[in-house]
Amino acid sequence: MQAWLDSLIARGAFGPHPSPDLIYGAAIAIACALVLFLVAVPFASIVTWVERRVWARIQSRIGPNRVGPNGFLQWLADGFKHICKEDVVPAEADAPLFRLAPYLVVLAFILPWAVMPFASSLILADLNIGILYITAVPALTVIGILMAGWASNNKWSLIGGIRSAAQIISYEIPAGLAIFPVVLMTGTLSMQGIIRAQGWAPDRWFLFANPFCFVAAVILFISGLAENNRTPFDLPEAESELVAGFATEYSSMRYLFFFMAEWGNMFIAAAIVVTLFLGGWQFPAIVQSPRLMNLLQLATFMLKCLFLVFVSMWIRGTLPRVRIDQMMSLCWKYFVPISFINLLGTAVWVAIFPDGNRFTQWLMLSFGVAVVLLFLARVVAFTRRARMELYFHPTI
Amino acid sequence: MSSGVAVWFPIGVMIVGSAVVVGTMVSINRLLGPRGRDSAVKSEAFECGNPPSGGAWGRFSVRFYLTAILFLLFDVELVFLYPWAVALRDLGMFGFVEALVFIAVLAVGLIYAWRRGALDWT
Amino acid sequence: MPLWLFAFFAIIAVVSALGVILQRHPVHCLLALALALLDIGALFIGLGAEALGFLQIIIYVGAIMVLFLFVIWLLNLQREGLATERIGLKVIGTLAAAALGAELCALLVHAGPAPAAPLPVDYGSLRSLARLLFANYLVAFEVTSALLLAAMVGAIGLARRIPGTNAVAAPPSDVADRLRSAAG
C-alpha cells in the first residue's frame, strides 16, 4: 500500500508539494475507519441474525424470517429498536462509571482488529509483539465488566460481573499457555510471522505439526469460548439465575454495546485460532497479481474464521450450560496442567526436530481427517433419523 | 514501517474511532429515545419486582480472591515464559533446564493448591 | 515519541495518580490507579520498550487490579471519612513524600542529557529481555519462582483461616456488623 501511495505521490495526485507523512497517516486512518465500520461493527451485528437462524435450524424452528429476505434485515431492526429505547440509569447507581463501562468493553472488542492479519499485506498494525497485544486487551474487558457490575449497584449485576471476571481471568491462563507451542516453534510473536511460518496445505498447519499443538489448539478454542461467556460457559449471564448478569440494569444502546462486543469477540477468538494453528491467510500462489492474491488470501482467512464462528454457534445450540464448579475445575485441574505438559513437550520436540517432522505431520493430518470423517458419519446418521421425524411433523 | 511510533498509529485511531462510534450511537439514542419522567420505582434497582433489600455493595466470598491470586501468580509466570519461548533456540539446553526448574517449582504450588482444596468450588 | 505525545501521557499519568489519593471511594481510587498503570504502559511503549509496556499492562491492569477489586469487595470497604485521628500516620506520610520528592529532584538535577547514540536494533524486544533474564539475572529469575510459590501458599493459608469459607456467600455486611458489635 505504501508503494501504491508513493507512486500516486510521484504522479502528483496530491498536488505539487505533498507531505508524505500526512498522506500515509490519512490513508491509515481511512483504512482503520473502513475496518471499523465495514467489518467489525457490521460483523458483530449481522452475526446475531446468522446465529438465531442457525439455532433455529438446530432446534427445528424457523427463526427470524420476517424482516427482509429470509429475515436478513433483522439485525438492522434490532439495532433501530434499541436506539429508540429509553436509556435508564438507576438512582442508586454510580452514574459516571455506569456510563463509562460499555465504552471499555467496546474498546476491548475494537482494539484487536488493528492487528488482524487479513492477508499478506492487509494488516493495519503489524506489531512485533502482536500476540502479546492480543493477550493484553482482555484486561480492558475485565475492568469494563467489573465496572458495569459494580456501578449498577444491583445484586444480580455485581454477582454476574464478578463471576464473569473470575471466569475470564481463569481461562486466560490456559489460553496464554496454549500460545506457547507456536511461539516455541516460530520464535516470534508477530501475527504475520506466525502465518508465514505455516503453509497453505493442511499438513503444514501448526495444528498438525505435533500432538502438543493439536491439544493446544483445542484448549485455545475452548478457552476462547469461555472468555467470551459463550455457551456452555455463559454462567455470568445465566438468565434463569442472574437475570442478565452484569448487564441487568442496562437498557437501550448501552445494553446493545455489551452484546455487540460479545458477538464481535467470537470473531476475534476464531481469528486467533486460525492465525496460530490453521494457517491464517495462506493460499497457494496461483495468480501473479499481488492485489488478486491478497483478495484470495482475505477470502481464505475470512472463510476459516467464519467456519470457527459457525462451530461456536453450533456448540451454543447443542450443549447445556455447565455449573460454575465444573467450569472452574475444567480450567484449573485439566487445562492448566495439560497446558504445562504441552509447553514442556513442545520444547523437547523443537529440540529434537528443529525443522518439524514430516511423518508426524502426515500422521496428525490423517488422524484429524479420520476424526472429521467419523464425526460426519455420525452427523449423517442423526440427520437421517431427524428427517424421518420431520416427515411426521411437517409443520415444524 | 515497523519501527518507531508510526506503527502504533492505527491503534490510536481505533481508540478514538470506537469512542466516536459509542458517542454517536448514544447521542442518536438521546435524540430518538423517549425521555420519560423518572419515578422512584422505575429508577430503583431491579430485584425481580420486589423492592430492593439493601444495597448491592456488600461483602463477597473469599473464593473470588483465591481465584484472582492464583491467576495473578500464573500470569506472572506466563510473562516470564514469553521471553524464554521467543529465545529458546538461542538459549539452548541451559535455557530449557532453567525454565524446567521454574515451572517445576510452580507445579509444586499448583499441586499444593489442589491438595488444599483451593481449586475446588464448593 | 514526539514531545506532545509524551506530555499528553504524562499529564494523564499525573492526573490519574492524583485521582488515586484524592478520591473518597476505594473503588474509584482503584480505577484511577488502573488508568495510571495503563498510561505508564503506554509510556513504556512510546519509549521503545514495547514488550515491557505490554507485560506491565498484562500484569498490573489485567491481574493486580482485578485482585485489588476482589479484595476491596472481600473486605467490604466503603467510602472513607476524613481520617482525623491518625496524626502519626500523617506525619510519617508527609516525611516519606518529602523524601521521595527530594530524591526525584536530585535525580533530575544529576541526570545527564539523553544518550546521543541510537538504541540497538532489538532494544526493548523480548529477545533482548530473554538474554538479560536468562544470563545476567538468572538467580533472580529462579528465586522469583520460589517467591511466587511462597505467595501461593500464603494466600491459600490466609483464605482458609477466614471463617465462613465453606458457606455459599458471606453474610450481608449489616448482619455481620451487628453480630460483631454484639460480640465485642
Task: Describe the secondary structure blueprint for this structure.
The complex is a heterotrimer of chains A (396), B (122) and C (184).
Chain A: H1 2-10, H2 20-58, H3 74-83, H4 95-110, H5 130-136, H6 138-151, H7 155-186, H8 191-196, H9 211-227, H10 239-242, H11 252-277, H12 290-318, H13 324-352, H14 358-392
Chain B: H1 9-32, H2 62-86, H3 88-115
Helix pairs in contact in B: 2-3
Chain C: H1 3-22, H2 26-46, H3 50-75, H4 87-110, H5 126-136, H6 138-161, H7 173-183
Helix pairs in contact in C: 1-2, 2-3, 5-6
Explained architecture:
The complex is a heterotrimer of chains A (396), B (122) and C (184). Chain A is an all-alpha fold. Chain A has 14 helices and no strands. Chain A has a domain at 88-353. Helix content of chain A is 69%, strand content 0%. With 122 residues, chain B is mostly helical. In chain B, helix 2 runs antiparallel to helix 3. Chain C has helices at 3-22, 26-46, 50-75, 87-110, 126-136, 138-161, 173-183. Helix content of chain C is 74%, strand content 0%. In chain C, 25% of the residues are buried. Chains A and C meet through helix 5, helix 6 and helix 7 of A and helix 2 and helix 3 of C.
